[in-house]
Structures are given as structure tokens and as C-alpha cells.
Amino acid sequence: MSNPHVSRPRFPEGYLHNPTRWLAWAEVEARLQAALHYWLVTVSSQGRPHAVPLWGVWVGGCFYFDGSPQTRHARNLHDNPQVIVHLESGAQVVIVEGEGMSVPRPEPPLAAALAAAYGNKYATLGYTPAPTQWDEGGLYRVVPRKVLAWNDFTQDPTRFIFPSG
User: Which residues, given as ranges, of the chain have pLDDT below 50?
Assistant: First the structure.
């Protein structure tokens, strides 16, 4: 994935006065890789939002999660691919806006990388998927379009925009 364009997020007048620092994409990506819990927000075809906490992995510049195609969020993704992924913290924030989609059958190298990433993160919690686990579906990917992040809202809010295509 190519490097994102970096800028300040737009906030209404009075929210920020003179931010002094920028976050580095490598720092934000490391937080996305290290997180154990993520919040996924999807929207139904009727416009109803749905938020759900879940496990996932950040691999190759994208967020992956798995689960039943019968879940509300999977059904929402089928109808409307616009999603948000948010880390747990409301102080050290990472918000990923992007497009979510089903990954019907990942290529073996990707499946192996995903299984390893899940195992490294969640083995102590009892989850170690095999690379073949997603051969029949149940795997989803979020491709980031924009990421907002900060460690100190008044000093370092940073927006990362990813080129499309």
C-alpha cells in the first residue's frame, strides 16, 4: 500500500488553536497492528448504523476480521461497503474510514499471513485459525481511505488520506 497524504483534520473553529506535532503513519499503523479489540461500524441499506466490537488483524495495510456471513455487520457490508474501524481508546484515537468487503477465498500466502497474525495476537485467548479456515468464506477486509489519529487532541491530530486504486 502506498504512503498516505498527511494533513490536519478539519474541525469547527475553536477546536484547535496551534497543533505542534504530526503523528507518523508508522506509529499509527503499529497501533492498528497491536490492538486486540476494534469497533466496527457498518450501515444498513436503510441507513441504520450498527457498531460491534470484534477481533481482527492489520496485515498489508488493510484490516481483516472474520465471522459468520449471517451477522448484522456482514449483511450490512453486503449492502453498503462504507465502514469505520475504531480502536478502543477515546484519548489515543485511531479512526479508519474505508470500504469493507468479503474476501471469498484468500490466496494461500495471504491466508498464511492472516492465520499467523491472528495466532500471534489471540492464541493466549484461545483463537488460532488455520490458513484454510476461510476457504468457504467468513473473511472480510477493510481497505482504508482515510485515517484520523491523535495522541493529544490539541497537539497532534493528524489525517492520513490514501490514494484510491
Answer: none
* Distance from C-alpha of 142 to C-alpha of 74, rounded to nearest angstrom: 12
Q: Are 134 and 103 contacting, i.e. CB atoms less than 8 angstroms apart?
A: yes
> Residue 84: which CATH number?
2.30.110.10
**Whether the model pTM is above 0.85:** yes
Q: What are phi and psi of 158, to 5 degrees?
A: -135, 140
Q: Spell out the residues 6+ positions from residue 158 whose beta carbon is closer than 8 angstroms to its own.
A: 6, 7, 8, 9, 22, 23, 28, 148, 149, 150
What total number of domains does the chain contain? 1
Full residue range of the structural domain in which residue 144 is found = 5-161
pLDDT value at residue 154: 83
* Per-residue confidence (pLDDT) for residue 165, from 0 to 100: 53
The phi, psi pair for 84, rounded to 5°, reads: -130, 135
